[in-house]
Write a structure and sequence with these properties.
Layout (H helix, E strand, L loop, with lengths): L3 E4 L2 E4 H88 L4 H62 L3
Antiparallel strand pairs: 1-2
């Protein structure tokens, strides 16, 4: 039982189809793979051309960017120079102010001032003691003043009485 068929006068047997089908299928796969690879190659080649074209504009932009960077560096350097000059000027002013105010000599002056303040506090304590004594003496003399007024009045009365006895003896 052989299966076969005839095309254009050729007798094709079943086993021939069984052998030819995998061979033709492999051959067709190879042709497809070759075609796909070739198309990918053409795509990469077109991409390379596009990259080369864009790299020219990239070079121009890179040149512009380099110019901008140089400009920014120049401005930054100029600003740093100005800032450094201002800082140096302010530092010199501060140093001169410190020298003029004799900050280093302040420690000795503060020690002297502390000693003087201690002496003033001691003198103030003495003055407060004297003040309390004066207050006590004032209190005593105020009491004596009333007593002396009374005694003075009595003495004046005694003299008047004596004068009146002299003028009018009993």
């Amino acid at each position: 039982m052989d299966i076969g068929f005839s095309i254009g006068g050729y007798n094709i047997k079943g086993w021939m189809v069984a052998v030819a089908l995998p061979v033709l299928s492999s051959f067709a796969g190879g042709v497809y793979w070759t075609y796909d690879t070739l198309q990918r190659f053409y795509g990469v080649e077109a991409g390379i051309v596009e990259v080369v074209e864009k790299s020219a504009s990239f070079d121009a932009k890179a040149g512009s960017l380099t110019t901008r960077i140089t400009s920014v560096e120049t401005v930054a350097q100029r600003n740093m120079t100005q800032a450094t000059g201002l800082l140096e000027s302010r530092i010199q002013t501060l140093e001169q102010a410190i020298i003029d105010n004799d900050v280093r000599g302040l420690n000795q002056k503060l020690a002297t001032l502390s000693t003087n303040m201690t002496q003033i506090l001691e003198q103030q304590k003495i003055l407060l003691d004297l003040r309390s004594q004066v207050d006590k003496a004032t209190t005593i003399t105020d009491g004596l003043g009333n007593t002396l007024d009374t005694l003075s009045t009595e003495i004046d009365d005694i003299w008047k009485a004596y004068d009146s006895l002299v003028d009018n003896p009993l």
